[in-house]
Specification:
Blueprint lengths: L1 H18 L14 H12 L4 H8 L4 H5 L2 H6 L6 E2 L14 H18 L8 H22 L8 H8 L8 H11 L11 H4 L2 H23 L4 H23 L6 E3 L12 E3 L1 H9 L6 E5 L8 E5 L12 E4 L2 H13 L4 E5 L5 E2 L4 E2 L6 H5 L7 H6 L7 E11 L2 E8 L11 E5 H7 E7 L5 H4 L7 E3 L4 H6 L4
Parallel strand pairs: 4-6, 5-14, 9-12
Antiparallel strand pairs: 1-10, 2-3, 4-13, 5-6, 7-10, 7-13, 8-9, 10-11, 11-12
Helix pairs in contact: 7-11, 7-12, 11-12
């Protein structure tokens, strides 16, 4: 009997080795051996250029050493087509670029209609509703996913940042459609809206606590109606936090303005939705989200899981097209005197001192002596790049009908770039722009037809969406 038991034990161990082979991270396999380290050291010391590079890098910012002076000297912020804009805006220490970009795309319509020198909509007003809606959406997702374990991939991603600042154009559309807008002076910025770090820490802690309570209630056998009753109590507390930091949004307000010719309008009462309809009037439903997502198939319609900020609206949906299509539609939009919202990776090849976005403006390969570049597809799939910032195209410089460079209105105040504007060269557009918002009137029938197809769902951990969660 003993021999049989031993034999069975050995067979079981052998099967376990086949089914679950040992990890290749075990000691002795693939480690940094003394011989390997010696070869690395000798290779480095035999490179005669390294001492000079070492002396330079240890005493300087690498960006100053890598700057491509030839491209910088050739740069000029001249455009043969520019759209009139208002004063440069400043999102301060917050991640609301998507909202500022949305307003910067819309406000020239108000300025033109009312003959204003500048105009700003209240980001505080819309931000209040965005935070409340995101909180509700998070809590609702916790109810929906309450049967899943904490290490479930969706649950884990949602818990990372329950109520962050980031967003998409679709957030602008859904919030304005539901809540309207108000002028900046009706609900001006507060410290908390301009410096969101402290508030977000409190909100996220509160929402994680509420998630734990909801999951505990589910584990005790409570059903969805009871969980949603508990959610309402939680939202009362969230509303109080927001109202104390932002102020309460107005239900009605009185507004008057003075035009550029010094004509003073009489006071007029509005609701926020009336104000948008009467003073802005852009048909938001006519704006289509177009992506260049090189990690998935082109000429398809997609939806990102868990990407919405309103629980009762759709997730982000987009048509995926090659970058040449995005550029063609963008050029038509700007030449028609319409500002264009776009999302990009603002951290790459950005010389902020002069507001230059150009590939190769930093030549790191010359500094280190080897290639450090990736293709656009590789940058997305291997999480080196993402659409982490939204801005607005307000001009273009063309040659023989083709864009050479683009004028970009940013929302970082007028101290950075060229008094708040950036110049985006067309090669940078190719590599680092991922999303544009295009009026459906400019889209060909075959592209519009994609909107009628069932969207293919991408998971919350898709590189385009999961990295965008830090949009700033």
């Amino acid at each position: 009997m003993l021999n049989i038991r031993v034999l069975l034990t050995l067979v079981t161990m052998a099967l376990a080795m086949v089914i679950c082979p040992p990890s290749y991270s075990q000691a002795g396999q693939g480690g940094l051996s003394t011989d390997l380290i010696e070869r690395l050291r000798v290779n480095f010391e035999n490179n005669g250029r390294n001492p000079a590079i070492y002396n330079a890098l240890t005493a300087n910012d690498i960006a100053n050493l890598a700057i491509n002076r030839d491209k910088l000297i050739a740069h000029n912020p001249i455009f043969n087509k520019e759209i009139t804009t208002g004063d440069i805006t400043n999102q301060e220490s917050s991640g609301r670029c998507w909202m500022f970009a949305g307003f910067n795309m819309l406000r020239p319509k108000v300025m033109d209609k009312l003959k204003l020198g500048t105009f700003k909509m209240s980001t505080n007003y819309l931000f209040f509703w965005d935070k409340l809606e995101k909180s509700n959406t998070f809590l609702e997702s916790m109810i929906t996913l309450s049967a899943r374990p904490l290490d479930d991939r969706d649950v884990d991603l949602l818990l990372e940042d329950p109520c962050g600042d980031g967003g998409w154009w679709s957030y602008v559309v859904d919030l304005i459609t539901k809540y309207g807008v108000v002028p900046e002076q009706v609900m001006p910025e507060t410290w908390a809206t301009s410096h969101t770090g402290g508030l977000n820490a409190i909100l996220n802690r509160k929402l994680r606590k509420d998630a734990a309570l909801l999951r505990d209630m589910f584990a005790e056998g409570k059903k969805a109606p009871e969980l949603r009753s508990a959610k309402e109590i939680m939202l009362r507390e969230i509303y109080a936090i927001l109202a104390l930091n932002f102020g309460e949004p107005p239900q009605k307000f009185t507004w008057r303005f003075e035009s550029k010719d010094s004509t003073v309008a009489p006071p007029q009462e509005f609701t926020p939705k009336q104000f948008y309809q009467d003073m802005v009037g852009v048909k938001l439903e006519d704006q289509v989200v177009i992506f260049d997502h090189p990690g998935v198939e082109y000429f398809k319609y997609y939806e990102m899981s868990w990407s919405g900020n309103l629980a009762d609206r759709n997730n982000l949906r987009f048509i995926n097209l090659p970058i040449d299509s995005l550029k063609r539609f963008a050029l038509e939009t700007v030449l028609a005197n319409n500002p264009l919202y776009f999302a990009c990776d603002v951290g790459k090849d950005n010389y902020g001192a002069k507001g230059v976005l150009q590939t190769g403006i930093y030549d790191y390969s010359s500094v280190y002596g080897f290639d450090v570049s990736l293709t656009k597809r590789e940058r997305i799939l291997y999480r080196d790049s993402s659409p982490n910032h939204a801005m607005v195209l307000t001009g273009v410089d063309t040659l023989d009908g083709q864009a050479v460079k683009w004028k970009v209105e940013n929302s970082w105040g007028d101290k950075g770039g060229d008094k708040g504007y950036w110049t985006m060269y067309d090669d940078w557009f190719n590599e680092y722009v991922y999303c544009v918002i295009i009026d459906k009137a400019l889209l060909p029938k075959e592209v519009m037809a994609l909107l009628a197809t069932p969207p293919k769902t991408l998971p919350a951990w898709d590189p385009m969406w999961s990295m965008m969660r830090s949009l700033r």
